[in-house]
Each structure stands twice: as C-alpha cells, then as structure tokens.
Amino acid sequence: MTARILEGKDFSARIKDEARAAVAQLKADGITPGLTVIIVGDNPASQVYVRNKHKTCEELGIRSDVIALPEDSTKDQLLDTIDRLNADPAVNGILVQLPLPSAIKSHEQEILERIDPLKDVDGFHPFNVGKLVTGAPTLVPCTPAGCVKMLDLAGIDIDGKRAVIIGRSNIVGKPMLHLLMARHATVTVCHSHTKPLGEVTREADILVAAMGRAKFVTADMVKPGATVIDVGINRIAPKKLVGDVDFDSVKEIAGAITPVPGGVGLLTVSMLMQNVVTATRLQLGRH
Ligand code: NAD
Q1: Does residue 14 lie in a domain region?
Q2: Does the C-beta of 234 come closer than 6 Å to ligand 1?
Q3: What pLDDT digit, counting tens, does each position of 131-174 carry?
Q4: pTM more than 0.85
Q5: Which is nearest to 126 in space by CA: 5, 199, 116, 47?
Q6: Ligand 1 centre from 191 Cα, in Å?
Q7: Chain CA centroid to CA 64, Å
Q8: Whether residue 61 is found in the same domain as residue 159
Q9: Percentage above 90 pLDDT, the chain
Q10: What residues act catalytically?
C-alpha cells in the first residue's frame, strides 16, 4: 500500500488563511503587524528566502521591511540596527537571515540574543528556548512548529505515540523534541553517534528526519504504517533537491510521508507569519 502524501501546499494554505484572519482582526483594532528582516551580504539562497518572506507578508496584510546590509558589515553595525528595531513600536517581528557572512559568523549567538525576545519571530533567543522547554506559550522555531501544525491539520494523532527525531540541532531537532513531548508523545532523539540508528527509527510511529543527509532514511529503517516527516533539504545537482528520506522506497511502507520539495519546507514561511501575529499579541499582552 502506498503512503498518504502530505502535500505542503495544502497545509501551508490553511496556515496562511488562519494568519490572514488573525491579521484582519488586529487591523480591526487599529494594529498592523510588522516584520523586519535583516539580510547581510549577497548569499543568493538567502535572497530568495527573504523575497519569499516579503511576498508572503504582503499577501497576508503584514507590513514588511527588508534591511539589506553590505557583506563587510561589522558586528556592531548589526547590533545597532537590531537596537533601533527593538525600540521601534511599529516593528513587531525581527528576523536576522542566516547564515551570516563568515567574518561575523562567530558572533551569531550574540547577535541573535540582542533581539528583543518578544520580537524574536525565529524563536532562537534563549528566553524563548527556555519558555519552550518549560511548556509556556512562546515564539517557537518555524520549521518544527510547522511540522506539528501539519500533523494536527492532517488529523494524525500525537498523544501516546512513539516519536523518533533524527538530528539534534537548535533549529529543528531540539525544539521538535519539546513540541512533541508537550503533546504527550514518547520521544527519542537520534544523532550522528546513535548506534544502531535503524533499530531506533523502526520503533517510531512518527519519524522526523532532520539530518541533512540525502536519501539516508531507507525503507528498512521505517516501521510499516509510520508517519514520516522529511525536513531535510539536500541539493544533489544544480536543479535537484532531495530530502533525508529515500522517498520512493519509504512511501511503499509508510502510512503517510512528506515529499521534498513540496513538503514541510513550504510550512516554514507560513508559520513565520503566524509567529508575527503571536509576537504582536504578546507585545499587546494578549495570548
Ligand atoms: P544540522 O547540520 O545543524 O544538524 C544535523 C543533525 O543531524 C545533527 O544533530 C547531527 O548529529 C545529525 N546527523 C547528521 N548525520 C547523521 C547520521 N548519519 N546519523 C544520525 N544523525 C545524523 O542541520 P539542521 O539545521 O537541523 O537541518 C537539517 C536538515 O533540515 C538540513 O537538510 C536543512 O537544510 C533542513 N532544514 C530545512 C528547513 C525547512 O524546511 N524550512 C529548515 C531548517 C533546516
């Protein structure tokens, strides 16, 4: 039996509809949510991501600004820009597009920590990470939040399920652990030292692959009927992207699976829009 294919565009449209309605409600109260994205340098992939965020904001009625700083910007110039945005009440969300140029990359944590936690729409500030760990309402990283939202919209139950995450990054794996645990899954996190990986992944009712290794997860690593969420994005040729999951073989055994491209990657920007709404509400003291 072939798995149900969880198409990102369907879920993304529904998440955007929710965000659009929330923006309309804020506007009725005289508040227009605003996002400012800071991009440093001219990384072509980052420029595509930033354009996409800007376009989606416009589509939903969110005010959007992009501040483009030159490649040779100093850490202090970036910190000054963040300070200015922190103090501007018209800016509800601040996002520093990663990766930073190599000359200031080592200061990434200090730069991200300079963002007012209530405007931290990427959810990377330690204040928000701490809130997530303790289960308080907060701004959560967009990609893992999008995966959980997709499971809900798809009607896939999380409560009491065995979930296995491959990857322990701060951006995907670790927040995913806390989101799924908060929803009463029993969660195992695997990483590059996990042995033997297949033995652990075969226990998963919900398997999340976020490792950045092309087609690494094969059918023999998946429990029949499992839901497989492929977060990986790997470029294997100039115009060919694949996930961390060997889609063609795994779809024959899984119960549901996300494709790459066209899967959870599309949810990240929609969840960012939701986070701009959440940030605006948090700043107003509404939850
Ligand atoms: P990362 O490189 O920070 O972390 C990768 C993790 O995978 C590490 O914890 C590592 O221990 C683990 N890992 C690597 N090789 C492994 C192996 N052989 N066995 C078990 N574990 C292994 O990556 P990241 O930032 O978490 O991103 C992961 C993937 O998700 C990448 O392909 C990235 O492009 C993609 N991604 C997609 C989105 C999106 O869809 N919008 C967002 C973020 C990341």
Answers
A1: no
A2: yes
A3: 999 999 999 999 999 999 999 999 999 999 999 999 999 999 99
A4: yes
A5: 116
A6: 9
A7: 19
A8: no
A9: 99
A10: 53, 97, 122
